[in-house]
Amino acid sequence: MVDGSSDNTFDELPREIEGASWISTKRLSDPTKKTDLTFTLKADATVMVMHSTGTFPAMVLRTPDPARVEAARALSADLQGLGFTRSEGPARWRGHDLWLADAAVWSKQAKAGETIALPGRTLDYVILIRR
After folding, report:
1. Closest CA to 21 of 40, 58, 47, 57
2. N or C: which terminus of the chain carries fewer CB neighbours within 10 A?
């Protein structure tokens, strides 16, 4: 049944996030309700963050969104400061408007008991965990 309640976030799963589970949150791109997210791991895991870059694949014929590009730069700097590393390969997903969009995937190996604190940003992103 197609009733509009499904999530079309992923066009194709990036290899890096296969087998991961995501932390379910409200839409993090709402500029009026940015939410920081803090959680503590119960087991060793890889923590991943996949976010929009504000750019689009050439075939989409859309120009970059300057506000999203800046938010992506800020989130990338935050993640790098928290010890995350960016995946080399390009990733793509569907934005909230369902247009195919470029994305970045960051990851960090974390130990049980470690607390991860991610700042809220006005940008589409998801947090994933893989044991």
Report:
1. 47
2. N
For the chain, the average pLDDT equals 87
E-strand stretches of the chain: 21-23, 37-40, 45-52, 85-86, 91-94, 100-110, 115-118, 125-130
CB 68 within 8 A of CB 31: no
Residue type, 124: D
- 30-59 tens-digit pLDDT: 777 777 889 999 999 999 999 999 999 999
CA atoms in the 13 A half-sphere facing the CB of 119: 13
Question: Would you call 99 helix, strand, or coil by DSSP?
Answer: coil
Tally the residues of the chain.
Answer: 131
CA distances from 2 to 5, 6, 8 (A): 8, 8, 12
Cα end-to-end distance, the chain, whole Å: 33
61: region left, alpha or beta (phi > 0 left; psi from -120 to 50 alpha): left
Strand partners, 86: 106
